[in-house]
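ok so I'm stuck.
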Amino acid sequence: MNETELQVVCRSCGKEVSPYVTECPYCGTRLRKKAPKLERGDSGSLEAVEKTPRIRRPRISLPRPDTGGRPLGSILVAVLPALVLLVGTLFELGRVDLGAVVVPGPAEFWRFLAAPFVYDDAGYLFAVGLVVMLFGSELEGRIGTVAAVVLFLACGSLGILGAFAIDDQRGVDAVISGGNGIALGAVAAFWVSGRREAQARGERLDWIPVGVAAVVLVLLPLVVATASPWAGPIGAAVGAIAGLTVRGGSRE
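replied:
not stuck anymore, here's the structure
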């Protein structure tokens, strides 16, 4: 590359200047942020090295299953406990047989996964199922079915696990089951992610239904013995943290 090919014309004064300067020596106009990198060519003279444009790799996102717009994950989480309750009734199985966590007792891993779906109170089951359908289905429309199911499981299981650890440390005898952790986690994730989206659009999210649902779920342990007062808030904390990572999306 010869010197003539490297000449730069100042856009302000129209004079040719060296390609190795950042400002025009005649009028002081800024020509570039920094001078080009110089390397010695085959002839021993300094030559400018052109930068190779950086190739941006496309972001890979996990494919979402085509559910036809139906919140299948929320439906599954709401209906599965009813099936478990029906099986327990038909075969005369108690809560512990179906997977409820007993305190004090062994920390069996499978129970922390099963306990959120074990009920012996139809009212408790209905309240949790209603909240999951109302708020979980909207959340599922934002993050997809698979992510929603994983989130529900995390909120419910970690809520039960935390409740087991707290009651065990306090020396409390308890049988813990039910999905108040799932429901409060769904509400918290819906509120946190929805509030961020509303603020980005310059809108306000209606907090009244969220507040009513949260209050009902928090008070459930006062009337339902198996609903742990610790599982719900722990599940809500997990849901809120997950909600911070949610980006807006359209319903499938």
